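In the design runs reported in the main text, the only information available to the sequence generator was the tokenized backbone. The following block is the verbatim input for one such run; it is reproduced so that readers can re-run the procedure and compare outputs position by position.
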């Protein structure tokens, strides 16, 4: 597993360290390639091309976000789709849309595994995904749809968020807005998955859901930290193993 880490984003450095630590613990050899925030697009493209061509490399991960001025979309699409363990290459996103994926994005996969712990069969349930990013909200919405849920996607332009979330059996929040979702947004008994990671001024980590008010009424709820985050790392390991197996 080879990770490209660009710039000095402290959160990215922490996430990469967690991924590498887990990989080493389970016996996946890993390596971090560090680049300064002034690195050029062509240097990164060349680094990706070298990793694509290296038969000893099974997984390539470009840690996001990238510093301003770099084109993440172009770099993600430079990764060999069979080594794209984050599942963000257009080919892998397209396969996900068709329900024929092998490498799908890690965080949405983790959300689905958590939701399935709450209920195995999601057919006919109403799911609201708050957030429509390529990384989380959009692929997760497709996965929920493929599992038979009726899916509503809410985002920053949604005019009345609570009107949607209150109807939902499953609410997934992936916005990066601390306290966005409170008890007033949640139908009693609903499954609430909090993807958000926000560092407050005093250094505490919180999600997008007000855990204290929502937990008493939710049927199931994930904490931050400790809920979705570890599932993302787990799925990165699983994708790396899948990529390895598909290439041997
Ligand atoms: P993003 O900034 O790309 O997307 C945020 C989304 O939230 C957008 O679609 C936007 O429309 C929506 N949004 C913003 N404000 C809103 C509002 N007031 N009401 C409704 N929708 C609103 O972010 P992302 O990459 O999808 O990440 C979202 C959050 O999840 C961040 O906090 C990120 O750190 C976290 N995250 C966690 C993990 C994990 O493993 N736990 C993985 C990826 C991202």
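Verbatim output:
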């Amino acid at each position: 597993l080879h990770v490209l880490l660009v710039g000095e984003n402290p959160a990215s450095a922490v996430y990469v360290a967690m991924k590498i630590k887990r990989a080493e613990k389970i016996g996946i050899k890993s390596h971090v390639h560090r680049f300064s925030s002034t690195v050029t697009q062509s240097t990164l493209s060349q680094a990706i091309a070298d990793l694509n061509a290296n038969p000893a490399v099974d997984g390539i991960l470009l840690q996001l976000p990238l510093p301003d001025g770099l084109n993440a979309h172009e770099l993600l699409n430079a990764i060999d789709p069979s080594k794209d363990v984050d599942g963000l290459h257009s080919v892998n996103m397209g396969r996900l849309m068709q329900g024929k994926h092998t490498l799908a994005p890690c965080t949405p996969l983790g959300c689905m595994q958590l939701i399935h712990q709450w209920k195995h069969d999601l057919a006919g349930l109403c799911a609201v995904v708050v957030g429509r990013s390529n990384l989380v909200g959009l692929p997760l919405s497709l996965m929920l749809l493929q599992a038979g849920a009726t899916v509503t996607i809410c985002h920053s332009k949604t005019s009345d968020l609570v009107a949607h979330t209150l109807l939902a059996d499953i609410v997934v929040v992936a916005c990066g807005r601390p306290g966005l979702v409170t008890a007033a947004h949640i139908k009693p008994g609903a499954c609430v998955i909090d993807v958000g990671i926000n560092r407050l001024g005093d250094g505490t980590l919180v999600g997008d859901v007000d855990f204290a008010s929502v937990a008493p009424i939710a049927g199931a709820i994930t904490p931050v930290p400790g809920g979705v985050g570890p599932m993302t790392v787990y799925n990165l390991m699983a994708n790396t193993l899948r990529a390895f197996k598909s290439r041997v």
